[in-house]
Please model this.
Amino acid sequence: MRNLYLALALIAVAFHAEAQELNATVTIDAEQTGQPNYQVFRTLKDQLTEFLNNTQWTSQEVLNQERIDCNFTLIIQSFESTTFTGSLQVQSSRTVFNSTYDSPVYNYNDRQFTFEYSEFQPLVFNINSFDSNLVSVLAYHVYTIIGLDADTFQQNGGDEYFAIAKQIVNTAASSNYKGWKATDGTQSRFRYNDAVLSNVYQEFRDAMYAYHREGLDKMESNAREAKLGVIKAIASLKGVNDRRPNSFLMRTFFDAKADEIQSIFTGGPQVDINTLVEHLNRIAPTRRSNWDNIRL
Model:
């Protein structure tokens, strides 16, 4: 019996040691190329899945159940030889305390995505060098995902991870690939990272914590208090919007949260939603169809 307990303990330790930070699902959509069943796309999917899930991205010990659920959807628009052009949709979520509900946290459509890839080439991330745009883009989004997830549990908990993403931006800026420089438009990796680290957007970081810890995580124990926590978090975003109307950072937040916010305030205990709806229409006017459906 003692040997059985020892064996089980060793299995548990091994299982714990192998658990990395992400539970990532990868989808490759190559319909636009006219060759969606090309073998290289299947290989790429398998390699990206292994790279994202088996790389240890931080020094933190992560239990298997603590891994961050995320999705990477790579839409290949064209390719020639080893050059691929397309877009990358990245989404992540985190489980609400004492529930099975996964709250969407990150929803980013990376449209500036061209990369070189040869089938079976090693995918290795090196923070100190730019070796592959494919690897650098993925690593950037990984650290952004981890940073945002950390922010939902601790105020400014994502600082060190956003700083790593910043280092990736700085290193990749020396390349000719788009998305890494200030001149690459208002919806780029550079712009998002620059905003999330800027004091100008500090209320966004505060709201990420308040929305989840003081809002959603209390939903099971006190739904009314949880709703008030979400209302307070959204109200704090007004300061960001007043300084930077229609900012990219805020748009990505509501791309992730609009449907959830609508759902939160269309049932359950009643709270005053008049000011909430006013703030939502002002901060995220493109989501008015969601806000018009908020009814209590």
Summary: The chain has two domains: 1-197, 204-296. The chain has a mean pLDDT of 92. The first strand starts at residue 22 and ends at 29. The chain has ten helices and four strands.
